[in-house]
């Protein structure tokens, strides 16, 4: 089953892979699809279908173009609708802690380099363009750093996916143990994430439920 899947991916036309990735990454930043299906997964999957540096280069151009389209769309949505996106039903479902983290990146002391590095933070990278637009960040400044981050992000994960795909194709006997290790890693990360969220919820409820300190009455004269 795995062998057939890898062979099928390896026979895909790189132009088709690039076109699909372009569309997915455009939706990732503009319609907040990345909050549900992180773009990292799409890029790695595209990389697995590639079999050489030339194919990686072609798909990198397409993926970067899609990422920039998504960033531009997200910026325009934030500019037009402002905080309403954040406080909508979908925005509340995403979670205020994720919005707050993206806002710290968009307005923090890290400046442009932090905006570029945000592409390596799943979910947050889909929220940053909307926040940049709603906070009034100039488009030229934003898109310049979005370009730098997109190129690094797409190139890195495409290369990792391509290397992983080639390794498995030439070492198919290791496919089962490698898949098992990946499953354990994903499960561990999921448990850590759930515990972190539970800890945050407990901290918030504990703060909200703690009684206010009593004000000492002045001593009698």
C-alpha termini separation: 88 Å
Low-confidence stretches: none
Main sheet record: none
Order of helices and strands: HHHHHHHHHHH
C-alpha Rg (nearest Å)? 22 Å
Q: How many extended strands?
A: 0
β-sheet strand percentage = under 5%
The helix tally amounts to 11
Percent range of helical residues? over 70%
Mind explaining what this structure looks like?
- With 221 residues, the chain is mainly α.
- The chain has helices spanning 2-10, 14-30, 39-48, 53-81, 83-86, 89-94, 96-107, 111-117, 124-134, 139-170, 175-209.
- The longest helix has 35 residues, at 175-209.
- The model has no long low-confidence stretch (mean pLDDT 79).
Topology of helices and strands:
Elements: H1 2-10, H2 14-30, H3 39-48, H4 53-81, H5 83-86, H6 89-94, H7 96-107, H8 111-117, H9 124-134, H10 139-170, H11 175-209
Helix pairs in contact: 2-3, 2-4, 3-10, 4-9, 4-10, 7-9, 8-10
Considering the chains and any ligands shown, give keywords for the structure.
11 helices; 0% strand; mainly alpha; 221 residues
Summarize the structure.
With 221 residues, the protein is an all-alpha fold. Helices cover 78% and strands 0% of the residues. It is built from eleven helices and no strands.
């Amino acid at each position: 089953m795995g062998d057939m899947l890898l062979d099928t991916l390896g026979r895909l036309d790189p132009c088709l892979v690039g076109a699909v990735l372009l569309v997915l990454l455009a939706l990732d930043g503009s319609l907040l699809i990345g909050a549900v299906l992180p773009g990292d997964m799409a890029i790695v999957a595209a990389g697995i279908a590639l079999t050489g540096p030339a194919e990686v280069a072609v798909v990198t151009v397409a993926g970067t173009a899609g990422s920039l389209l998504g960033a531009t769309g997200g910026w325009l949505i934030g500019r037009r609708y402002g905080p309403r996106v954040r406080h909508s039903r979908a925005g509340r479902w995403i979670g205020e802690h994720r919005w707050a983290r993206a806002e710290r990146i968009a307005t923090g002391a890290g400046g442009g380099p932090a905006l570029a590095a945000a592409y390596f933070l799943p979910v947050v990278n889909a929220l940053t363009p909307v926040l940049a637009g709603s906070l009034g960040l100039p488009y030229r400044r934003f898109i310049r750093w979005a370009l730098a981050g997109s190129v690094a992000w797409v190139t890195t994960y495409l290369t990792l996916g391509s290397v992983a795909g080639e390794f498995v194709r030439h070492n198919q006997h290791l496919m089962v143990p490698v898949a098992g290790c990946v499953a354990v890693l994903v499960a561990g990360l999921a448990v850590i994430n759930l515990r972190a969220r539970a800890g945050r919820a407990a901290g918030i409820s504990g703060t909200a439920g703690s009684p206010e300190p009593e004000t000492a009455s002045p001593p009698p004269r």
